[in-house]
């Protein structure tokens, strides 16, 4: 049925006979598989067996024409039909002869290169056919023959897709043979030279071959070649060759020895200098990025300039001998440890594996982690249930009722060790700023023993700014001279020391002159709260912004546009440090552990020994550039990301570069428009007390630092930004995000308590427990007072559903605290919605689950070096008291039949935009995981979607599309999952607020400020109103009808950002160097064959097709690839015109 004449093929059979052989086409009408083999198979078998040169050429030619015109699918089809084997066998047959027929061999090799390029098993097939070493030998014989050599080199390159084949070639001196084919700059045969370099690079896919190349000293040779081609190459002519050389260098530097060799032989300088030239010419631009990546990869790793990676803050844990963990035995879990409840780090491609599919673990409630007898103690945290509301009868006397509302001592720990005896009730406190007595009552707190060292609001660190004003200077002198800090006062009540101090007079004067009215903030109250805060180092200074207060700046703050090639620019500066170490100042200007440090008079001054502060070390590297090293979380050696420090002694109008060099997160919103925040004391004194987003040239990228002790496999990232300070002799503060201290919370709660009308609002602040460091963990109850003391009203009060809100388990997520501030202030407000909510619910709020972490400036952990949001399954009563007691309290609510209607834990997210919720759904988890469990019979109340849906329409920053409701194994010990599973709370959420801003809604393109964060806290409250109509449903076990649910839950585990324009990581394989266009190279070689080489060999059987019309080509194609014929008409058209799709002229 298949005949071929001497000049051309003809198809004598019918198309029908071929149809059945094509597996991919599903035309049911053509049922009968009529022939056992397709036309293609016949062609291939003829190819393998034909001894006749001309018919073999015919076949090769037809195959080549057909394959080069179509898409990869054709080649894949051919491979599936044994195309590679047939070509290899033809190669072996032809190549083995004493004098191979190159007329035949060349088109064969070209076709093999094209097909093999797409056959993943080509290497193994070639080995089986015995074609590998044969090809290498033929190459050896033809090194003088550029065109033939190129053809062999392609095939070798293609064979190297298999490691074992590459090793086989390496063992047989393939590397040496090919290396010798790469000459210094030459204008002739550049095509073949490039192929040789590409083949050499292909061989470097194995460790053994890389090792060989390094040990033979070829790296130096490759560098010299690169240098030569760079310096001699005319503008553009040698770009492909330079690219290929860079690819070789990338491959050889995949080993440590390779990187060392590159550095040793001056590779960094060569690359740096050649890149600088490339930048000057647009045509050479494409060489820059691969060179930069190569430099980043090879720059030697440098230990952080620290004596130890261990945090400078160590806290002796109860029941443990305090030792520094042995880091030799410490396992590096960092890469597995998921960052947030929200999987910020390590976007997991295999996230499905993480979804819980065990129905029992999803449905069955585990046994409580403690005996029932331990629960009744928590009735103290439900004061509203036992309160008699006598003050309602006395409502004509607000003074009295005020004290009633706050009667339960708000500083006394309910659980945990009793604290030192504290004096009287706080009822007599009068914080009213207008009160003349307030100053004398509040100031002396700074001198109590409780805060023995706290010379609160000591302006010591601000003396420079103060000294600029003569009047300020006088005040400072007075304060210093007459009130030596921290030496007066004994153990006395905070409010009872009525001694005036000049120091405080100075503060008062400053406040009176420059203070602005900040809602819910009172500096003196803040100072009083801070005096009682216990920190590991014993902070004695307040950071000015926390004391003075912050107002959101007027206007919006758009995300910062990313400068093009910013990372490249920064990397060049980093490379210069390596190349010219003498230009680097390298002067330590701040060391948390060395306060005696002297620094040059013209350098910036740093400071961070205050609440939430985090700065371990600052090193001046250039005149206006500083490296910043952050302190690891207390009692551990990692989790650096959060920063907050003071800087002064700046020159205004000069831009300073700051590099935070030991960040640990693998990506950051700093690459997507986020800026750090800055607070200027001078601006504040001029009436603008704002934290503002600031900083230019912001970039976050992987650097070459390693831990100081080098025992931990850690990747560090640099956050770099430049700041131009506005004022002379200013004191500024820089932070990762708007700070929110523990003292701020304490002061805020006090103010809220004062602000409410106690006849309307039941507001009670209690202490849930003491933290490890002895700070109190507040729990707040907010609800409406009953209308009267009648049984009915009291009954209604005591049956209101509970809503439990928690926050700030992760200290670095200060944005969560601002959202919580919004929630608290709203719930205490006179807003009618707030009133409705108070009448409908009892709010139980634990606004700071990790006070110790917040105070000591940690990013992630508590003082025991653990992520508290991974302790919920079995919290330790001693080491994780806040979690232990919060969970105990929830158990208690359960035990009295008052399971919360809503639980929400407020968090911050550093890698995503917007605000969103994570919830828990059994069905969605099973669906998403592809579990085989039949969910049809499972009942699930879809009410968990009500709040997110409501928020989507209410809150501008909220994004419903970012929410999901999946239960992950790795999150099984988080608040959200434990409260859902163990407490049976249907609406159990994590609320994630971005550190950056929004990419949707009215805030699109803007960074969020504290105003927007607080607004989010308000909107969350609003959304709770949507539940009030559900209340009946909640109390009767009526099954709610299924509301529509889309099964396509969003995959929250993916970074929501597109890959950064510039690589954050330096990859082992530079993506820009991947994917050589082998096809076009091969084709060019064919085309050029006639020009450059002996024309007699290169006829390529072109005559074969000469007689063919477009029509016959068409029918041939339909015969060979019938199932692929319904391709684009443009392809057909081009075929008819005798031009293949890739522009090649046929015949
Ligand atoms: Zn978090």
Structural class, from secondary structure content?
A: alpha+beta
Ligands in the model, by name, code or SMILES, are: zinc ion
Number of strands: 24
* Main sheet overview: 7 strands, mixed
Helix content bin: 25-40%
Q: Write down the overall geometry.
A: globular
| Strand coverage percent | 5-15%
Number of helices: 44
What does the average pLDDT come to? 79
Radius of gyration: 37 Å
Low-confidence stretches: 1-36, 324-351, 396-414, 416-500, 1030-1056, 1089-1113, 1124-1147
Give the strand order of the largest sheet, numbering strands 1, 2, ... along the chain.
17-18-20-19-21-23-22
End-to-end C-alpha gap: 26 Å
Active site: 992 (proton donor/acceptor)
Family: Belongs to the peptidase M14 family.
Subcellular location: Cytoplasm, Cytosol
Domain Peptidase M14: 738-1028
What does this structure look like?
The chain has 1147 residues and is an alpha+beta fold. It is built from 44 helices and 24 strands. The strands form six sheets. The chain has a seven-stranded mixed beta sheet with strand order 17-18-20-19-21-23-22. Strands 5-7-8-10-15-13 form a six-stranded mixed beta sheet, covered by helices on one side. The protein has a five-stranded antiparallel beta sheet with strand order 6-9-16-11-12. Strand 17 and strand 18 form a beta hairpin. Helix 2 packs across helix 3 and helix 25 packs antiparallel against helix 26 (502-514). The two termini are 26 Å apart. Mean pLDDT is 79; it is low at 1-36, 324-351, 396-414, 416-500, 1030-1056, 1089-1113 and 1124-1147. Bound molecules: zinc ion (ZN). Residues 340-341, 810, 813, 907 line the site of zinc ion. Residues 358-373 have a biased composition (Basic and acidic residues). GO terms for molecular function: metallocarboxypeptidase activity; zinc ion binding. It comes from Eleginops maclovinus (Patagonian blennie). One of its GO terms (biological process) is proteolysis. It is an enzyme of class 3 (hydrolase).
């Amino acid at each position: 049925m298949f005949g071929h004449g001497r000049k051309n093929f003809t198809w004598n059979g019918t198309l029908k006979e071929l149809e059945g052989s094509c597996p991919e086409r599903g035309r049911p009408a053509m049922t009968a598989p009529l022939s056992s083999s397709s036309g293609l198979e016949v062609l291939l078998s003829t190819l393998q067996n034909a001894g006749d040169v001309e018919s073999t050429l015919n076949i090769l030619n037809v195959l080549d024409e057909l394959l080069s015109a179509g898409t990869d699918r054709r080649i894949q089809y051919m491979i599936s039909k044994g195309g590679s084997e047939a070509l290899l066998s033809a190669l072996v047959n032809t190549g083995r002869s004493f004098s191979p027929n190159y007329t035949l061999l060349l088109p064969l090799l070209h076709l093999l290169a094209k097909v093999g390029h797409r056959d993943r098993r080509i290497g193994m097939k070639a080995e089986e056919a015995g074609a590998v070493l044969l090809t290498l030998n033929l190459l050896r014989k033809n090194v003088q023959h550029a065109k033939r050599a190129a053809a062999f080199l392609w095939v070798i390159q293609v064979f190297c897709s298999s490691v074992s084949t590459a090793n086989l070639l390496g063992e047989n001196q393939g590397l040496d043979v090919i290396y010798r084919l790469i000459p210094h700059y030459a204008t002739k045969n550049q095509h073949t030279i490039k192929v040789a370099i590409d083949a050499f690079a292909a061989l470097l896919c194995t460790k053994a071959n890389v090792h060989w190349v390094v040990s033979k000293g070829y790296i130096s040779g490759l560098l010299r070649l690169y240098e030569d081609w760079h310096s001699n190459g005319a503008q553009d002519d040698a770009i492909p060759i330079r690219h290929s050389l860079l690819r070789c260098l990338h491959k050889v530097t995949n080993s440590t020895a390779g990187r060392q060799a590159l550095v040793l032989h001056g590779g960094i300088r060569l690359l740096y200098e050649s890149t600088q030239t490339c930048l000057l010419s647009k045509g050479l631009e494409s060489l820059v990025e691969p060179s930069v990546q190569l430099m980043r990869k090879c720059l030697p790793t440098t230990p952080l300039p620290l004596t130890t990676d261990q945090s400078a803050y160590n806290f002796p844990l109860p029941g443990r001998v305090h030792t520094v963990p042995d880091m030799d035995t410490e396992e590096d879990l960092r890469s597995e440890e998921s960052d947030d409840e929200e999987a910020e780090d390590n976007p997991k491609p295999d996230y499905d594996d993480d979804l819980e599919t065990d129905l029992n673990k999803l449905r069955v409630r585990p046994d409580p982690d403690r005996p029932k007898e331990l629960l009744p103690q928590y009735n103290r945290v439900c004061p509203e249930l036992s309160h008699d509301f006598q003050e309602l009868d006395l409502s004509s006397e607000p003074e009295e009722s005020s004290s009633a509302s706050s009667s339960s001592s708000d500083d006394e720990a309910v659980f945990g060790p009793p604290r030192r005896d504290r004096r009287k009730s706080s009822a007599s406190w009068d914080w009213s700023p207008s009160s003349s007595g307030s100053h004398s009552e509040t100031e002396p707190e700074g001198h109590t023993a409780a805060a023995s060292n706290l010379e609160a609001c000591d302006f010591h660190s601000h003396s420079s700014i103060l000294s600029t004003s003569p009047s300020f200077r006088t005040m400072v002198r007075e304060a210093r001279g007459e009130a030596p800090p921290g030496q007066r006062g004994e153990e006395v009540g905070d409010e009872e020391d009525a001694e005036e101090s000049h120091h405080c007079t100075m503060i008062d004067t400053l406040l009176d002159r420059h203070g602005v009215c900040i809602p819910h903030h009172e500096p003196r109250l803040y100072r009083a709260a801070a005096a009682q805060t216990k920190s590991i180092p014993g902070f004695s200074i307040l950071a000015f912004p926390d004391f003075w207060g912050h107002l959101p700046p007027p206007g919006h703050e758009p995300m910062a546009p990313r400068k093009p090639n910013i990372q490249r620019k920064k990397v060049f500066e980093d490379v210069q440090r390596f190349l010219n170490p003498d230009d680097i100042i390298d002067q330590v200007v701040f060391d948390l552990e060395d306060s005696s440090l002297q620094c040059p008079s013209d350098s910036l001054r740093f400071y961070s020994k205050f609440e939430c502060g985090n700065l371990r070390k600052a090193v001046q590297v250039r005149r206006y550039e500083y490296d910043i090293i952050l302190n690891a979380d207390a009692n551990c050696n990692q989790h650096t990301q959060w920063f907050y420090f003071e800087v002064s002694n700046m020159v205004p109008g000069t831009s300073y570069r700051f590099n935070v060099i030991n960040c640990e997160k693998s990506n950051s919103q700093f690459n997507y428009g986020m800026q750090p925040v800055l607070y200027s004391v001078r601006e504040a004194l001029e009436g603008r007390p704002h934290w503002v987003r600031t900083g230019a040239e912001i970039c976050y990228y992987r650097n070459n630092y390693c831990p100081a002790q080098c025992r931990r496999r850690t990747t560090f990232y640099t956050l770099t930004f430049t700041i131009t300070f506005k004022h002379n002799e200013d004191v500024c503060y820089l932070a990762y995000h708007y700070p929110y201290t523990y003292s701020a919370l304490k002061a805020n709660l006090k103010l809220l308590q004062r602000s409410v009308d106690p006849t309307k609002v039941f507001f009670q602040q209690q202490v849930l427990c003491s933290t490890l460091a002895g700070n109190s963990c507040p729990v707040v109850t907010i609800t409406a007072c009953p209308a009267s003391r009648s049984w009915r009203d009291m009954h209604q009060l005591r049956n209101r559903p509970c809503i439990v809100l928690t926050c700030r388990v992760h200290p670095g997520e200060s944005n969560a605290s601002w959202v919580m501030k919004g929630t608290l202030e709203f719930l205490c407000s006179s807003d009618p919605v707030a009133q409705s909510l108070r009448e409908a619910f009892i709010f139980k709020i634990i606004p700071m689950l990790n006070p110790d972490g917040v105070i000591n400036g940690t990013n992630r952990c508590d003082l025991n070096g653990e992520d508290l949001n991974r302790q919920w399954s079995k919290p330790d009563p001693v080491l994780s008291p806040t979690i232990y007691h919060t969970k105990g309290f929830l158990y208690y609510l359960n035990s009295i039949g008052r399971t919360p209607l809503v639980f929400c834990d407020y968090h911050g997210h550093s890698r995503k935009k917007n605000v969103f919720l994570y919830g828990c759904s059994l069905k969605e988890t099973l669906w998403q995981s592809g579990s085989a469990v039949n969910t049809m019979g499972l009942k699930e109340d879809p009410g968990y979607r009500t709040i997110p849906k409501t928020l989507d329409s209410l809150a501008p920053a909220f994004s419903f599309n970012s929410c999901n409701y999946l239960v992950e194994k790795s999150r099984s010990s988080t608040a959200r999952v434990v409260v859902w599973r163990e407490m049976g709370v249907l609406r159990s959420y994590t609320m994630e607020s971005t550190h950056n801003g929004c990419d949707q809604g009215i805030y699109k393109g803007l960074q969020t400020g504290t105003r927007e964060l607080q607004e989010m806290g308000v909107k969350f409250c609003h959304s709770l109103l949507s539940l009030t109509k559900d209340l009946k449903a909640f109390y009767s076990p009526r099954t709610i009808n299924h509301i529509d649910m889309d099964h396509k839950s969003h995959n929250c585990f993916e970074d929501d950002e597109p890959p950064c324009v510039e690589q954050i990581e330096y990859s082992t394989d530079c993506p820009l160097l991947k994917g050589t266009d082998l096809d076009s190279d091969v084709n060019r070689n064919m085309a050029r064959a006639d020009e450059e080489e002996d024309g007699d060999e290169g006829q390529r059987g072109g005559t074969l097709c000469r007689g063919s019309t477009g029509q016959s080509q068409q029918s041939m194609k339909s015969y060979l690839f019938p199932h692929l014929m319904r391709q684009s008409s443009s392809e057909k058209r081009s075929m008819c015109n005798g031009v293949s799709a890739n522009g090649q002229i046929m015949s």
